[in-house]
Amino acid sequence: xxxxxxxxxxxxxxxxxxxxxxxxxxxxxxxxxxxxxxxxxxxxxxxxxxxxxxxxxxxxxxxxxxxxxxxxxxxxxxxxxxxxxxxxxxxxxxxxxxxxxxxxxxxxxxxxxxxxxxxxxxxxxxxxxxxxxxxxxxxxxxxxxxxxxxxxxxxxxxxxxxxxxxxxxxxxxxxxxxxxxxxxxxxxxxxxxxxxxxxxxxxxxxxxxxxxxxxxxxxxxxxxx
Length: 225
Prior knowledge:
By secondary structure, this protein is mainly beta. The chain has 1 helix and 19 strands. It has 2 domains: 29-120, Immunoglobulins (Immunoglobulin-like), CATH 2.60.40; 130-224, Immunoglobulin-like, CATH 2.60.40.10.
């Protein structure tokens, strides 16, 4: 009887360990730093610089997919590698975002790192502000309206020159949202908007600095219960 019980426990443990799925973890980004001006790299010509992107190794990962996106044109460059660094040519005087996806050769699951912004240094004296980060509601989220039938749109902005002057908030039921519902100063990062139940809304934020440089976010959507 003891042999039977022991065999059963062994088979249970062995079976569980055999079925254990080891999914990749998210990589920790190293360089270029978040919201920084990158002056490090190899100059290719007057307009282009070669930058080495670096991150820490993540668990249960066999390969990485680096995505570097030009925030002015919304055009991404994607590089696959089994190393923890990769080189990408980027345009000078331009803001970028980047993130890394960790992938496994044994499971279909993957993990995505945080997304960092940086400014690839150029010769201009005034920097374009980074697109604002839309923080609430999140895209695809379903939210409740308050007692006044309103929802708060919230964001955060950053600029290497610290000279953001205003934010323009666009909000509507159409995609893309074209209705300007508010223009606020740089000390404001939230705006209340009126909503209707069981309706999908779209919104984005345009950032304007003292030199009239502008940037605009991607489009977020959310649904009101």
